[in-house]
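Here's what a typical entry looks like (Mandelate racemase/muconate lactonizing protein):
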Amino acid sequence: MQIFEIIRDYYSPVLVGQDPMRIEALWEAMYWSKAHWVGRVGLTIMAQSAVDIALWDLKAKALGLPLWRLLGGHKDRIKSYNTDGGWLNLPTDVVTKNLEGMLAAGWTSVKMEGGQT
């Protein structure tokens, strides 16, 4: 089974004739369509995502807005973080030294792996 077959066979019957501006309702209709018997992972959710994106794009075009604005605008800046804060296999003193170096370099956020080995 391919994505276009899922859209044609499972999603089209619940979408055709509906108001394309009611994206959330259409998403629910697709989610609870017969496609859920195929599964809610893999190709079915990829197909649903493709339709969902197309519906948002259609709505933005109908409203004469860029999609980013319809979805809430934009930010001038985003906060970044260092992803090398520490790993389970590193001794505490090494992790501490790494974190001190990151703070000295100006990082204010760090992602770390935690838990037990």
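The chain has a mean pLDDT of 90.

More examples are in the samples folder.
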